[in-house]
Design the sequence.
């Protein structure tokens, strides 16, 4: 009454591992395809996503440089106009040449600065909202700074003090 186990088949074990690996690859491939399809849908709906802070700063520098170079101001006069425009273009190009290498060498710094700016903005917004709640009386909690520590002077409804002029 002994049951015999089938002999170990190395080929069937390798086939099972291959099927599991193929299933994992199929899942990863399907996920990647879904992600790419979602990215394409978002690009068509919302336009291209913004770049990093460094890329956006570089675009800003380019646009400002183009705008400044294209200014034809009547303030320069007819005689000084072309020379002044040339000076403006030269200054803009020098500024651009000084800024671009810094942006290219340190792109992560600008991402960190952008994140820090967002944190500062959130902190400022929180402080302003708390102050507005206190000013408008929308806060249910009583702020001890708003309590009047003067003794009760009777029927006076306002926060001012009654002055007897008689």
Sequence:
């Amino acid at each position: 009454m002994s049951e015999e186990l089938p002999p170990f088949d190395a080929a069937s074990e390798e086939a099972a591992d291959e099927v599991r690996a193929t299933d994992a690859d199929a899942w990863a491939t399907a996920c990647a395809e879904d992600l790419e399809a979602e990215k394409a849908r978002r690009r068509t709906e919302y336009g291209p996503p913004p770049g990093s802070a460094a890329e956006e700063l570089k675009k800003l520098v380019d646009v400002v440089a183009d705008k400044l170079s294209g200014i034809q101001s009547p303030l320069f006069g007819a005689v000084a106009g072309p020379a002044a425009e040339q000076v403006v273009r030269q200054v803009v190009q020098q500024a651009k040449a000084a800024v671009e290498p810094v942006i290219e060498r340190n792109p992560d710094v600008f991402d960190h600065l952008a994140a820090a700016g967002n944190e500062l903005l959130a902190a400022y917004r929180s402080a302003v909202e708390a102050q507005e709640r206190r000013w408008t009386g929308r806060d249910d909690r009583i702020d001890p700074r708003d309590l009047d520590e003067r003794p009760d002077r009777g029927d006076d409804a306002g926060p001012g003090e009654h002055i007897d002029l008689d």
Q: What stands out?
A: The radius of gyration is 35 Å. The chain is about 70% helix and 0% strand.
